[in-house]
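seq:
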Amino acid sequence: MNTTVLRVGDMNSSNHDPLVAVRGLKKHFAVRSGVFARVHGWIKAVDDVSFDIDVGETLALVGESGCGKTTLGRAVLRLIEPSAGVVTVCGRDIGALNFTQLREFRRKLQIIFQDPYSSLNPRISVGGIVGESIRVHEGASQPEAQRRVDELLERVGLDASFRRRFPHELSGGQRQRVGIARALALGPEFVVCDEAVSALDVSVQAQILNLLSELQRDAGLAYLFISHDLNVVRQIADRVAVMYLGKLVECAGVERVFSTPMHPYTQSLIDANPIPDPSYPPTTTILEGEVPSALNPPTGCPFHTRCPQAMDHCRTTLPLATVTETGHTVACHLYAQS
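struct:
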């Protein structure tokens, strides 16, 4: 296999500019203690992450709980301020925007939150929740905002009469549809879907996934789809990025990741994914050990403490991203040496 060793962040080889370009993104949280709240450590939730997302593309972000997926998604949107790195959307560095500029630019960036029960204000009607951004950002009159809300509700499969209801009167699937309508209210170009279907039952999951795919076809939306459910990822994603302990360890097209996973961590995740077929052989690879603390991550490769194929230099040297001729990116010494 012919490979080229690149530093993480040099992974875009396309001939056009991506819609979203993330380079060297970091988010470190200070750990304070004592009377004077002095900093005695840093939690490296996101540590030097880079990726691209094209117009109309879905990049799925997968990994174990606590690996930094949600923090990454929010840092990309500047819902939390990154510690370092550059995020450009539509060619603009959103980290360089001041408050007024960012407020105006936010109509291009939206998020669908994980929990449809806590992400909606229980004291505001559905019409108020969906229509708030239309009134704030576009200064629409009450009749115009109501008309737009009715159109959005119908677009996500809800009757216009739902605008009079409150969140406690809705099912989980209906609440998530309201969350999607709110995210679409300003015609965004990029949406972060943070575990958008994890709190829903299987039948409602299918409805929401079909809705997201339909909206993507109609409006050309780009998604960063954060999930731990590999079956859902395989259905909706174009590419998959695998995250471990704040770092991306593998990225490739969805079918390539599932058919020929390269990184040992990705292989373990796929082996652990349940397959509803009694004739399918049981999993033989079991990932042992616990995820190390992001407060004190291991030296070298972050996965070496649990990797069954770890070598001596894995404990001391951080692997660079290796890109194959097929565009499969992996950060592992097993391939950097080939």
